[in-house]
Amino acid sequence: MSLxxxxxxxxxxxxADPHNAAVSFSVANTLKPGTKTEVHVQVRDHSFxxxxxxxxxxTDQAANPVEYALxxxxxxxxxxxxxxxxKRGIPLDSVKVTVDGDLDLHGFFGFSFNTRxxxxxxxxxxxxxxxxxxxxxxxxxxxxxxxxxxxxxxRNETPVSTKLT
Length: 165
Description:
Layout: H1 3-16, E1 27-31, E2 37-41, E3 46-50, H2 65-88, E4 94-103, H3 105-109, E5 119-129, H4 134-147, H5 149-155
Antiparallel strand pairs: 1-2, 2-3, 4-5
Helix pairs in contact: 2-4, 2-5
Protein backbone atom coordinates (compact mmCIF):
# COMPACT_ATOMS: atom_id res chain seq x y z
CA MET A 1 0.00 0.00 0.00
CA SER A 2 1.41 3.40 -0.96
CA LEU A 3 1.60 6.36 1.39
CA UNK A 4 -0.99 8.19 -0.71
CA UNK A 5 -3.33 5.20 -0.19
CA UNK A 6 -2.69 5.39 3.56
CA UNK A 7 -3.38 9.14 3.58
CA UNK A 8 -6.58 8.78 1.54
CA UNK A 9 -7.80 5.80 3.58
CA UNK A 10 -7.21 7.73 6.80
CA UNK A 11 -8.97 10.79 5.39
CA UNK A 12 -12.03 8.70 4.51
CA UNK A 13 -12.09 7.05 7.95
CA UNK A 14 -11.79 10.42 9.71
CA UNK A 15 -14.40 12.05 7.45
CA ALA A 16 -16.78 9.20 8.27
CA ASP A 17 -16.18 9.60 12.02
CA PRO A 18 -13.91 12.32 13.46
CA HIS A 19 -13.22 10.08 16.48
CA ASN A 20 -11.14 7.90 14.14
CA ALA A 21 -8.45 10.61 14.25
CA ALA A 22 -7.83 10.09 17.98
CA VAL A 23 -5.09 7.56 18.68
CA SER A 24 -3.39 6.63 21.93
CA PHE A 25 0.03 5.19 22.59
CA SER A 26 1.30 3.42 25.70
CA VAL A 27 4.68 2.18 26.86
CA ALA A 28 5.61 0.44 30.09
CA ASN A 29 9.09 1.01 31.52
CA THR A 30 10.67 -1.36 34.06
CA LEU A 31 13.93 -0.74 35.89
CA LYS A 32 16.51 -3.50 35.59
CA PRO A 33 19.86 -3.66 37.48
CA GLY A 34 21.81 -0.41 37.36
CA THR A 35 20.28 2.21 35.11
CA LYS A 36 18.98 -0.19 32.49
CA THR A 37 15.29 0.08 31.61
CA GLU A 38 13.23 -2.40 29.61
CA VAL A 39 10.58 -0.64 27.53
CA HIS A 40 7.51 -2.45 26.22
CA VAL A 41 5.30 -0.81 23.62
CA GLN A 42 2.03 -2.24 24.82
CA VAL A 43 -0.40 -1.91 21.94
CA ARG A 44 1.94 -3.14 19.19
CA ASP A 45 4.05 -5.54 21.29
CA HIS A 46 7.54 -4.14 20.65
CA SER A 47 10.32 -3.97 23.22
CA PHE A 48 13.66 -2.24 23.53
CA UNK A 49 16.28 -1.41 26.14
CA UNK A 50 17.41 1.95 27.46
CA UNK A 51 20.68 2.39 29.36
CA UNK A 52 23.16 5.05 30.36
CA UNK A 53 26.86 5.27 29.58
CA UNK A 54 29.27 4.30 32.37
CA UNK A 55 29.91 7.97 33.19
CA UNK A 56 26.25 8.16 34.27
CA UNK A 57 26.20 4.83 36.13
CA UNK A 58 25.08 2.58 33.28
CA THR A 59 26.52 -0.34 31.36
CA ASP A 60 26.25 1.33 27.92
CA GLN A 61 24.22 -1.56 26.49
CA ALA A 62 21.76 0.76 24.73
CA ALA A 63 21.06 4.39 23.95
CA ASN A 64 20.02 6.58 26.86
CA PRO A 65 16.66 8.36 27.22
CA VAL A 66 17.79 11.67 25.71
CA GLU A 67 19.39 9.86 22.76
CA TYR A 68 16.07 8.08 22.19
CA ALA A 69 14.31 11.46 22.39
CA LEU A 70 16.60 12.78 19.63
CA UNK A 71 16.07 9.54 17.69
CA UNK A 72 12.31 9.92 18.06
CA UNK A 73 12.53 13.46 16.70
CA UNK A 74 14.77 12.47 13.78
CA UNK A 75 12.77 9.41 12.80
CA UNK A 76 9.49 11.31 13.06
CA UNK A 77 10.98 13.93 10.75
CA UNK A 78 11.95 11.22 8.22
CA UNK A 79 8.43 9.73 8.28
CA UNK A 80 6.76 13.14 8.10
CA UNK A 81 8.91 14.11 5.10
CA UNK A 82 7.83 10.91 3.35
CA UNK A 83 4.13 11.46 4.09
CA UNK A 84 4.07 15.11 3.09
CA UNK A 85 6.13 14.51 -0.05
CA UNK A 86 3.59 11.85 -1.06
CA LYS A 87 0.68 14.11 -0.14
CA ARG A 88 2.08 17.05 -2.15
CA GLY A 89 3.34 14.93 -5.05
CA ILE A 90 6.95 15.97 -4.46
CA PRO A 91 9.42 13.33 -5.67
CA LEU A 92 11.80 12.33 -2.92
CA ASP A 93 14.59 9.78 -3.40
CA SER A 94 16.09 9.89 0.09
CA VAL A 95 15.83 11.62 3.44
CA LYS A 96 18.56 11.81 6.06
CA VAL A 97 17.97 13.65 9.31
CA THR A 98 20.66 14.30 11.92
CA VAL A 99 19.61 15.66 15.29
CA ASP A 100 22.05 17.12 17.82
CA GLY A 101 21.17 18.30 21.30
CA ASP A 102 23.01 20.00 24.14
CA LEU A 103 22.19 19.16 27.75
CA ASP A 104 23.78 20.62 30.87
CA LEU A 105 24.01 17.98 33.63
CA HIS A 106 23.80 20.72 36.30
CA GLY A 107 20.03 20.54 35.90
CA PHE A 108 19.68 16.74 35.93
CA PHE A 109 21.83 16.29 39.04
CA GLY A 110 20.39 19.34 40.80
CA PHE A 111 23.78 21.03 41.02
CA SER A 112 22.13 24.26 39.86
CA PHE A 113 18.49 25.17 40.16
CA ASN A 114 18.93 27.79 37.44
CA THR A 115 19.69 25.17 34.77
CA ARG A 116 17.02 23.21 32.93
CA UNK A 117 17.34 19.42 33.23
CA UNK A 118 16.39 19.08 29.56
CA UNK A 119 17.95 20.17 26.31
CA UNK A 120 19.09 23.77 26.10
CA UNK A 121 19.44 23.55 22.34
CA UNK A 122 18.42 21.06 19.64
CA UNK A 123 19.55 21.28 16.02
CA UNK A 124 18.05 19.35 13.09
CA UNK A 125 19.93 18.92 9.82
CA UNK A 126 17.92 17.54 6.90
CA UNK A 127 19.38 16.19 3.65
CA UNK A 128 16.85 15.61 0.89
CA UNK A 129 17.65 14.07 -2.47
CA UNK A 130 15.43 14.03 -5.48
CA UNK A 131 14.63 15.73 -8.78
CA UNK A 132 12.39 18.50 -7.41
CA UNK A 133 13.48 22.12 -7.19
CA UNK A 134 15.02 23.62 -4.05
CA UNK A 135 11.87 25.74 -3.70
CA UNK A 136 9.62 22.66 -3.58
CA UNK A 137 11.83 21.09 -0.92
CA UNK A 138 11.73 24.33 1.09
CA UNK A 139 7.91 24.19 0.88
CA UNK A 140 8.07 20.55 2.01
CA UNK A 141 10.24 21.54 4.97
CA UNK A 142 7.64 24.12 6.04
CA UNK A 143 4.90 21.45 5.87
CA UNK A 144 7.00 19.02 7.91
CA UNK A 145 7.86 21.66 10.52
CA UNK A 146 4.14 22.40 10.88
CA UNK A 147 2.95 18.77 11.08
CA UNK A 148 5.67 16.63 12.72
CA UNK A 149 4.21 15.33 16.03
CA UNK A 150 7.53 14.86 17.84
CA UNK A 151 8.83 18.25 16.70
CA UNK A 152 5.64 19.65 18.21
CA UNK A 153 6.55 17.97 21.52
CA UNK A 154 9.95 19.64 21.46
CA ARG A 155 8.59 23.06 20.51
CA ASN A 156 5.48 23.32 22.64
CA GLU A 157 4.59 22.69 26.23
CA THR A 158 2.51 19.52 26.55
CA PRO A 159 0.32 18.83 29.59
CA VAL A 160 1.79 15.94 31.57
CA SER A 161 0.35 14.44 34.73
CA THR A 162 2.10 12.00 37.05
CA LYS A 163 0.27 9.68 39.44
CA LEU A 164 2.19 7.78 42.09
CA THR A 165 0.61 4.40 42.82
